[in-house]
């Protein structure tokens, strides 16, 4: 692995230049970049909605936005961030780019299908953006009936169809990844030599393929209910509004694992690289991903503890929710142990990992509060829940995504970004994040309900703190946009392996050749053979 | 901006200290684990820092005892929390036997409360201190959620069925009522106040006649029972075309498919509004549905009247 890479001046970026060569590409790396562009657009769009929400909440009165506009803001913030950022960010951007390289493949198993997935995703996104331009939607990203089917006067149909379409992109990507991981591994790349990111993607693909059809069907039912008034969810016609919640969360809770498992995989890669050793308890980390994927399907009704389900079924779902926390705890302990006796290189991606560990820890542990039946009654539907899932999805998933983006950026572009700026962004995000969402735990326990446009004045101090934190957070998220773009032209040349990492993707040049490797690599060792390498060097 | 600022909510019901103890207990346990992990991460990150990027770490691959330890210990602690939280949960969802019952309906964007004695209030709820109160409620339109943070209770209001919360106020005062389930434009305006009063003040308030219209719920229910012709089939001696309703509330009813159901408020409500849903064993399904013929207040009044039909004419459960 230490042999010098012969650099070719031709790579996947510059071998063809036309717009058509990008829009009609079958190259997984280019498709990854296409996803990056759409996901980043969605991220900044969702961020603008978030900024308006926080701005409105600096005062108890509804003085900046009208109630209807405010309700549209938090709905579109949720829809955009969940379906067009969190779900695709790591698998579709980083997974598409890095996964075939990491397993020594030329491409994914079905390159045309891969391009089609991007088109489906983008069409779904355009539908959703159209609904926003037409006046937006105000049901909350959860689309609960009967408000979404009868009450709301906003563009539920178009948004629902947009999200429905996007689901197929997930299903096809999951399918593509599973087949690729099964069939396209390089010679010698056995299952237990796979990088942990690949295990995480595999587990995620399972959830995508099994879970996404359920949300698709549910949204279709909602569209029919709203358009034709079938009565599936309408009690006056013998329907049940709570049925929608069961169906919705049957996908949407596993979807949380679609969002967090791939970033967890990224964390394993980055922590191994910058500790310069193998991940502690490799097989435990690998199998905990699968355990989370499987058990993740059995906890959906913990979103319904106050919705009128039987207290006995609540008991079972509470117990399983505690159980699903264990594999996440196991991962966290293994990552911590990986640091022990490492040679820890303080580079930007590692700073994002430290941020991830701190925030995911809080996010995960506060999940135990919500799994606790007697406590969830008080906490559910308050800001405590808002804080908890932002710690998991933003503190965890987006931190992990940023760690991965900073880790593979030199491979994607062939250029280094400014490391000091990167560390500053990581610090700003960490501090800003805690200031934004930390006070919301207290607000939640005090009883401030979520999705409130106006609120009693005694909650103002904590809301002002939260909004102040959000402005720091915004700076932290905008900063990378500048130094990444700057690096494209002015960044130092990265070379094949700037992090001196193990892993097949680092054995080929940066940016890689269109066909990834000059010759199919042959794998002879495990994923994180840093110690072996030293012996070779020494 | 700092008026009324606090970091911990008021404890104003018997359930509140239980929930708070659980909360603080979990805070202590999770804070311990968080601090331990953070100390290790920070310590390792600093102690093993090497910014040359040239060195490699020690070849440690894992440890079975550690893996077992940090899987099983959190698992057993989780079970402990689970049991504790579930005990508290059953205290929250199981109302005691003798409660003061109040009916409520959520609709966009207000809460309507209906007392047994006939008083009605909107976005205000007067209750006596030191007495268990049960609020039975539903929604007329979309989902709502009746949330009283000071009492640490909440439940969704679901159209088409009854939900209930119960609490025993321990402190005289005024507390927030929030709608906690998003319900559209003025969701955040769907708030109100609970007035917890001394027993004597409460009695004075009751007899003050604020909002009193059309007699007690019992009287309204009785009138409806005749007006809607329920009385023609549900004869008290059981010889009518419908089952006798004497003593039915709280009893176990056997249905025509052999299953049984407890005749609580939800069952009575369903039987009135969607009578086709369940048929009592030994009877023909001939009862019409009263969906659209009777409003939520009427349903609640009818249920109160049915509750009052006990052998010997004594009322149980919600007796004043």
Number of helices of chain B: 7
Low-confidence stretches of chain B: 314-320
What distance separates the N and C termini of chain A?
14 Å
What would the principal axes of the Cα set say about the shape of chain A? globular
User: What percentage of residues of chain A falls in helices of 4 or more residues?
Assistant: 55-70%
Most extensive protein-chain contact, per-chain counts: A-B, 99 and 93 residues
- Radius of gyration of chain B using CA atoms only: 27 Å
- For the report, how would you describe the main beta sheet of chain A? none
Distance between the termini of chain B: 43 Å
Instruction: Please outline the major beta sheet of chain B.
Output: 5 strands, mixed
Please count the helical segments of chain A.
Answer: 16
Instruction: Give the helix/strand class of chain A.
Output: mainly alpha
Q: Please trace the helix and strand order of chain B, writing H or E for each element.
A: HHEEEEEEEEEEHHHEEHH
Strand fraction of chain A? under 5%
What shape does the CA trace of chain B take? elongated
What is the SS-derived class of chain B? alpha+beta
Low-confidence blocks of residues of chain A: none
Q: How would you explain this protein's 3D organization?
A:
- The complex is a heterodimer of chains A (538) and B (320).
- Chain A has 538 residues and is mostly helical.
- In chain A, 68% of the residues lie in helices and 0% in strands.
- Chain A contains 16 helices and no strands.
- Chain A has helices at residues 19-23, 28-56, 67-102, 111-133, 147-151, 156-183, 196-228, 241-275, 282-295, 311-339, 348-371, 373-379, 383-413, 419-446, 460-490, 530-537.
- The radius of gyration of chain A is 23 Å and the shape is globular.
- The two termini of chain A are 14 Å apart.
- In chain A, 62% of the residues are buried.
- Chain B has 320 residues and is of the alpha+beta class.
- Chain B has helices at 15-47, 64-93, 199-207, 217-227, 230-233, 265-273, 296-308, and strands spanning 100-107, 110-115, 120-122, 124-128, 133-139, 144-148, 153-157, 163-167, 173-179, 192-197, 252-254, 260-262.
- A five-stranded mixed β-sheet of chain B has the order 3-2-1-5-8, covered by helices on one side.
- In chain B, helix 1 (15-47) runs antiparallel to helix 2 (64-93) and helix 4 (217-227) packs across helix 7.
- Chain B is elongated.
- Chains A and B meet through helix 3, helix 5, helix 8, helix 9 and helix 10 of A and helix 1, helix 2, strand 7 and strand 9 of B.
